[in-house]
Amino acid sequence: MPDDARRSTSYHRAADAARNDVNRPSEARLYDLFLGGKNNFEADRRLYQALVRIAPEAPRLACANRRWLAEAVGLMIRDGGIDQFLDLGSGLPTAENTHEVALRSDPAARVVYVDNDLTAISHGQALLADDEHAYFADADLTDPVAVLRHPVVSGALDLDRPVGIILGLVLHLITDTDQVRRIVADYLDAVPSGSWLAITHPLNPRDGSRLADLSSSLETKLKDAFPDIRFRTADEIGGILTGVDLVEPGLVDLATWWPGREQKPGPGGTALLLLVAVARKP
Protein backbone atom coordinates (compact mmCIF):
# COMPACT_ATOMS: atom_id res chain seq x y z
CA MET A 1 0.00 0.00 0.00
CA PRO A 2 1.38 3.48 -0.84
CA ASP A 3 2.62 5.46 2.17
CA ASP A 4 0.45 8.45 1.25
CA ALA A 5 -2.67 6.31 1.53
CA ARG A 6 -1.66 4.95 4.92
CA ARG A 7 -1.02 8.46 6.19
CA SER A 8 -4.23 9.92 4.74
CA THR A 9 -5.68 12.73 6.90
CA SER A 10 -8.81 14.03 5.26
CA TYR A 11 -10.34 15.79 8.26
CA HIS A 12 -10.20 19.59 8.75
CA ARG A 13 -8.37 21.34 11.59
CA ALA A 14 -11.39 23.27 12.83
CA ALA A 15 -13.45 20.10 13.10
CA ASP A 16 -10.50 18.39 14.77
CA ALA A 17 -10.42 20.92 17.59
CA ALA A 18 -14.09 20.36 18.40
CA ARG A 19 -13.79 16.60 18.21
CA ASN A 20 -10.70 16.57 20.41
CA ASP A 21 -12.12 18.70 23.24
CA VAL A 22 -10.58 17.12 26.35
CA ASN A 23 -13.24 18.80 28.51
CA ARG A 24 -15.89 16.57 26.97
CA PRO A 25 -15.96 12.75 27.12
CA SER A 26 -14.96 10.81 24.03
CA GLU A 27 -16.68 7.53 23.14
CA ALA A 28 -13.34 5.93 22.25
CA ARG A 29 -11.58 7.11 25.40
CA LEU A 30 -14.51 6.10 27.60
CA TYR A 31 -14.58 2.56 26.21
CA ASP A 32 -10.81 2.32 26.57
CA LEU A 33 -11.21 3.34 30.22
CA PHE A 34 -13.75 0.54 30.77
CA LEU A 35 -11.13 -1.86 29.38
CA GLY A 36 -8.50 -0.59 31.82
CA GLY A 37 -6.77 1.76 29.35
CA LYS A 38 -4.78 4.86 30.23
CA ASN A 39 -5.70 7.21 27.37
CA ASN A 40 -8.34 9.32 29.10
CA PHE A 41 -9.01 12.71 30.67
CA GLU A 42 -10.92 13.98 33.69
CA ALA A 43 -14.17 14.34 31.70
CA ASP A 44 -13.94 10.68 30.67
CA ARG A 45 -13.21 9.57 34.22
CA ARG A 46 -16.15 11.51 35.67
CA LEU A 47 -18.60 9.88 33.29
CA TYR A 48 -17.02 6.46 33.85
CA GLN A 49 -17.45 6.79 37.61
CA ALA A 50 -21.08 7.86 37.22
CA LEU A 51 -21.82 4.84 35.02
CA VAL A 52 -20.10 2.42 37.38
CA ARG A 53 -22.18 3.76 40.26
CA ILE A 54 -25.28 2.78 38.28
CA ALA A 55 -23.92 -0.58 37.06
CA PRO A 56 -20.83 -1.78 38.97
CA GLU A 57 -20.49 -4.74 36.58
CA ALA A 58 -20.12 -2.51 33.51
CA PRO A 59 -16.29 -2.79 33.26
CA ARG A 60 -16.61 -6.57 33.35
CA LEU A 61 -19.21 -6.38 30.58
CA ALA A 62 -16.89 -4.28 28.40
CA CYS A 63 -14.12 -6.84 28.82
CA ALA A 64 -16.55 -9.67 28.04
CA ASN A 65 -17.59 -7.81 24.89
CA ARG A 66 -13.94 -7.62 23.86
CA ARG A 67 -13.46 -11.35 24.42
CA TRP A 68 -16.61 -12.10 22.45
CA LEU A 69 -15.40 -10.06 19.48
CA ALA A 70 -12.15 -12.03 19.51
CA GLU A 71 -14.15 -15.25 19.46
CA ALA A 72 -16.26 -13.92 16.58
CA VAL A 73 -13.13 -13.17 14.55
CA GLY A 74 -11.87 -16.69 15.18
CA LEU A 75 -15.24 -18.11 14.12
CA MET A 76 -15.17 -16.15 10.86
CA ILE A 77 -11.72 -17.51 10.07
CA ARG A 78 -12.42 -21.11 11.07
CA ASP A 79 -15.91 -21.52 9.64
CA GLY A 80 -15.96 -18.88 6.93
CA GLY A 81 -12.40 -18.82 5.64
CA ILE A 82 -12.36 -15.04 6.11
CA ASP A 83 -8.89 -13.51 5.83
CA GLN A 84 -9.73 -9.79 5.61
CA PHE A 85 -11.64 -7.68 8.10
CA LEU A 86 -13.21 -4.22 8.26
CA ASP A 87 -13.47 -3.11 11.90
CA LEU A 88 -15.86 -0.15 11.93
CA GLY A 89 -15.80 2.28 14.84
CA SER A 90 -12.83 0.39 16.21
CA GLY A 91 -11.87 2.84 18.96
CA LEU A 92 -8.48 2.96 20.64
CA PRO A 93 -5.97 0.13 20.26
CA THR A 94 -6.04 -2.12 23.30
CA ALA A 95 -5.42 -5.76 24.24
CA GLU A 96 -6.62 -8.46 21.84
CA ASN A 97 -7.05 -6.19 18.85
CA THR A 98 -8.74 -7.67 15.79
CA HIS A 99 -5.52 -8.02 13.79
CA GLU A 100 -3.74 -9.73 16.69
CA VAL A 101 -6.54 -12.29 17.00
CA ALA A 102 -6.74 -12.80 13.23
CA LEU A 103 -3.00 -13.20 12.70
CA ARG A 104 -2.78 -15.97 15.29
CA SER A 105 -5.10 -18.04 13.13
CA ASP A 106 -4.05 -16.79 9.70
CA PRO A 107 -0.63 -15.11 9.29
CA ALA A 108 -1.79 -13.66 5.95
CA ALA A 109 -4.90 -11.95 7.35
CA ARG A 110 -5.46 -8.23 6.80
CA VAL A 111 -7.44 -5.82 8.96
CA VAL A 112 -8.53 -2.23 8.38
CA TYR A 113 -9.68 -0.26 11.41
CA VAL A 114 -12.03 2.69 10.82
CA ASP A 115 -12.73 5.51 13.27
CA ASN A 116 -13.10 9.29 13.28
CA ASP A 117 -12.20 9.89 16.93
CA LEU A 118 -8.95 11.88 16.97
CA THR A 119 -7.43 9.97 19.88
CA ALA A 120 -8.18 6.70 18.13
CA ILE A 121 -6.75 8.03 14.86
CA SER A 122 -3.47 9.23 16.37
CA HIS A 123 -2.88 6.09 18.41
CA GLY A 124 -4.06 3.73 15.68
CA GLN A 125 -1.99 5.26 12.91
CA ALA A 126 1.10 5.42 15.13
CA LEU A 127 0.73 1.81 16.29
CA LEU A 128 0.15 0.43 12.81
CA ALA A 129 2.54 2.65 10.83
CA ASP A 130 4.91 -0.20 9.98
CA ASP A 131 2.45 -3.09 10.12
CA GLU A 132 1.98 -4.98 6.85
CA HIS A 133 -1.26 -6.63 7.93
CA ALA A 134 -3.19 -3.92 9.79
CA TYR A 135 -4.18 -0.42 8.70
CA PHE A 136 -6.12 2.54 10.07
CA ALA A 137 -8.56 4.65 8.04
CA ASP A 138 -9.65 8.03 9.44
CA ALA A 139 -13.28 7.98 8.34
CA ASP A 140 -16.86 8.13 9.63
CA LEU A 141 -18.59 4.75 9.53
CA THR A 142 -21.96 6.46 8.97
CA ASP A 143 -20.83 7.24 5.39
CA PRO A 144 -20.27 3.79 3.86
CA VAL A 145 -19.46 5.20 0.40
CA ALA A 146 -16.66 7.37 1.79
CA VAL A 147 -15.35 4.54 3.96
CA LEU A 148 -15.25 2.04 1.12
CA ARG A 149 -13.59 4.56 -1.21
CA HIS A 150 -11.02 5.58 1.39
CA PRO A 151 -7.55 4.84 -0.04
CA VAL A 152 -6.56 2.80 3.00
CA VAL A 153 -9.66 0.59 2.73
CA SER A 154 -9.56 0.16 -1.04
CA GLY A 155 -5.80 -0.38 -0.97
CA ALA A 156 -5.75 -3.01 1.78
CA LEU A 157 -8.95 -4.98 1.16
CA ASP A 158 -10.18 -6.83 -1.92
CA LEU A 159 -13.91 -6.15 -1.86
CA ASP A 160 -14.48 -8.72 -4.57
CA ARG A 161 -13.68 -11.40 -1.99
CA PRO A 162 -15.54 -12.12 1.29
CA VAL A 163 -14.92 -9.67 4.12
CA GLY A 164 -15.56 -9.91 7.85
CA ILE A 165 -17.38 -6.74 8.97
CA ILE A 166 -17.21 -5.87 12.67
CA LEU A 167 -19.57 -3.42 14.39
CA GLY A 168 -18.70 -3.69 18.07
CA LEU A 169 -20.58 -1.44 20.50
CA VAL A 170 -20.90 1.40 18.03
CA LEU A 171 -24.33 1.43 16.37
CA HIS A 172 -26.00 2.69 19.56
CA LEU A 173 -24.22 6.01 18.94
CA ILE A 174 -26.66 6.65 16.07
CA THR A 175 -30.17 7.75 17.08
CA ASP A 176 -32.12 6.89 13.93
CA THR A 177 -32.74 3.15 13.67
CA ASP A 178 -33.72 3.42 10.00
CA GLN A 179 -30.37 5.10 9.33
CA VAL A 180 -28.60 2.26 11.13
CA ARG A 181 -30.41 -0.28 8.95
CA ARG A 182 -29.36 1.59 5.81
CA ILE A 183 -25.74 1.85 6.96
CA VAL A 184 -25.45 -1.87 7.70
CA ALA A 185 -27.25 -2.75 4.45
CA ASP A 186 -24.89 -0.53 2.45
CA TYR A 187 -21.83 -2.27 3.86
CA LEU A 188 -23.33 -5.69 3.22
CA ASP A 189 -24.33 -4.72 -0.33
CA ALA A 190 -20.71 -3.74 -1.02
CA VAL A 191 -19.27 -7.15 -0.15
CA PRO A 192 -19.84 -10.50 -1.87
CA SER A 193 -21.69 -13.62 -0.79
CA GLY A 194 -19.77 -15.46 1.91
CA SER A 195 -18.94 -12.28 3.83
CA TRP A 196 -19.61 -12.25 7.57
CA LEU A 197 -20.88 -9.71 10.09
CA ALA A 198 -20.33 -9.49 13.86
CA ILE A 199 -22.36 -7.04 15.92
CA THR A 200 -22.71 -6.13 19.59
CA HIS A 201 -25.36 -3.66 20.72
CA PRO A 202 -26.75 -2.46 24.09
CA LEU A 203 -30.27 -3.63 24.89
CA ASN A 204 -33.13 -1.70 26.43
CA PRO A 205 -36.25 -3.90 26.45
CA ARG A 206 -38.43 -0.88 27.37
CA ASP A 207 -40.92 -3.22 29.02
CA GLY A 208 -41.02 -1.85 32.56
CA SER A 209 -38.73 -4.57 33.88
CA ARG A 210 -35.82 -4.06 36.28
CA LEU A 211 -33.48 -4.69 33.35
CA ALA A 212 -35.20 -1.91 31.38
CA ASP A 213 -34.88 0.44 34.36
CA LEU A 214 -31.15 -0.31 34.64
CA SER A 215 -30.64 0.15 30.93
CA SER A 216 -32.61 3.41 30.89
CA SER A 217 -30.52 4.78 33.76
CA LEU A 218 -27.31 4.08 31.85
CA GLU A 219 -28.74 5.45 28.61
CA THR A 220 -29.89 8.67 30.29
CA LYS A 221 -26.51 9.26 31.90
CA LEU A 222 -24.72 8.67 28.60
CA LYS A 223 -27.04 11.08 26.80
CA ASP A 224 -25.63 13.92 28.89
CA ALA A 225 -22.38 13.53 26.96
CA PHE A 226 -23.57 11.80 23.78
CA PRO A 227 -27.06 13.07 22.88
CA ASP A 228 -27.42 10.70 19.92
CA ILE A 229 -27.14 7.56 22.09
CA ARG A 230 -29.95 5.03 21.64
CA PHE A 231 -30.11 1.62 23.27
CA ARG A 232 -32.51 -0.61 21.33
CA THR A 233 -34.99 -3.40 21.91
CA ALA A 234 -34.22 -6.91 20.72
CA ASP A 235 -36.70 -6.47 17.84
CA GLU A 236 -35.02 -3.24 16.75
CA ILE A 237 -31.58 -4.82 16.83
CA GLY A 238 -32.87 -7.89 15.01
CA GLY A 239 -34.31 -5.60 12.34
CA ILE A 240 -30.81 -4.34 11.59
CA LEU A 241 -29.74 -7.88 10.71
CA THR A 242 -31.70 -8.31 7.50
CA GLY A 243 -30.55 -10.28 4.47
CA VAL A 244 -28.08 -12.40 6.47
CA ASP A 245 -28.13 -15.85 8.03
CA LEU A 246 -27.57 -15.78 11.77
CA VAL A 247 -25.05 -18.25 13.20
CA GLU A 248 -26.26 -20.24 16.21
CA PRO A 249 -27.30 -19.30 18.83
CA GLY A 250 -28.53 -16.23 16.93
CA LEU A 251 -29.07 -12.78 18.42
CA VAL A 252 -28.67 -13.34 22.16
CA ASP A 253 -27.18 -11.74 25.25
CA LEU A 254 -23.64 -12.55 26.32
CA ALA A 255 -24.83 -14.79 29.15
CA THR A 256 -26.70 -16.97 26.65
CA TRP A 257 -23.83 -17.06 24.15
CA TRP A 258 -21.48 -18.31 26.88
CA PRO A 259 -23.73 -20.35 29.17
CA GLY A 260 -22.14 -21.45 32.41
CA ARG A 261 -19.01 -19.36 31.94
CA GLU A 262 -17.72 -16.16 33.50
CA GLN A 263 -20.00 -14.01 31.39
CA LYS A 264 -23.09 -15.23 33.29
CA PRO A 265 -25.21 -12.42 34.80
CA GLY A 266 -24.02 -10.95 38.07
CA PRO A 267 -26.31 -9.60 40.78
CA GLY A 268 -27.24 -6.59 38.64
CA GLY A 269 -27.90 -8.59 35.48
CA THR A 270 -25.56 -6.37 33.47
CA ALA A 271 -24.47 -9.19 31.14
CA LEU A 272 -28.04 -9.25 29.82
CA LEU A 273 -27.68 -5.67 28.59
CA LEU A 274 -25.53 -6.55 25.60
CA LEU A 275 -26.90 -8.46 22.60
CA VAL A 276 -24.44 -10.14 20.23
CA ALA A 277 -24.72 -11.89 16.88
CA VAL A 278 -22.60 -13.36 14.11
CA ALA A 279 -24.14 -13.65 10.66
CA ARG A 280 -23.19 -14.72 7.14
CA LYS A 281 -24.24 -13.09 3.89
CA PRO A 282 -25.79 -15.83 1.70
TrEMBL record:
Q: Which Pfam families match?
A: Methyltransf_19
Q: Which InterPro entries match?
A: SAM-dependent_MTases_sf, SAM_dep_MeTrfase_SAV2177_type
* Keyword annotations from UniProtKB, A to Z: Methyltransferase, Transferase
What's the protein name?
A: S-adenosyl methyltransferase
Write one Gene Ontology MF term. Answer: methyltransferase activity
Q: Give an example GO biological process.
A: methylation
* Region of interest called Disordered, as start-end residue ranges on this chain: 1-20
UniProt keyword Phosphoprotein, yes or no: no
Q: Does the keyword Transmembrane apply?
A: no
